[in-house]
Amino acid sequence: MRDYNAYLKGMEKSMAEKLFFLPYLEKVQNEVVYLIDFGCASGEMLSRVPDMPDMQKIGIDHDSNMLQIARSKTKGTFYSSLDEFLENEKPAEKTCAIVFSSVLHEVGSDYEEIK
After folding, report:
1. Residue 52's closest CA among 73, 32, 77?
2. Per-residue model confidence as pLDDT tens digits over 76-85
């Protein structure tokens, strides 16, 4: 990525809409062990989710620079791949809430095949 600042400013403009799920999450917070932001970028969305007892915030992003930003500003655990998360957390029997906000653009040309 050439301009991280421009990318992050654009992503943060629509943050209010991206947080539409918060009322639902608050209703099930006692059941959710992991809140996973797939394609977390700078971790901005996770930083805006209130801390909830017994729920761990997880960010997954393939860009190491974004993960470095996320780790510096957001309370949570961050991984560079879903495989890395699965190897370290072993969530098989735990309830996960997964947010896929703004990740279809990451799919690239494969998205055409999915449609």
Report:
1. 32
2. 999 998 889 8
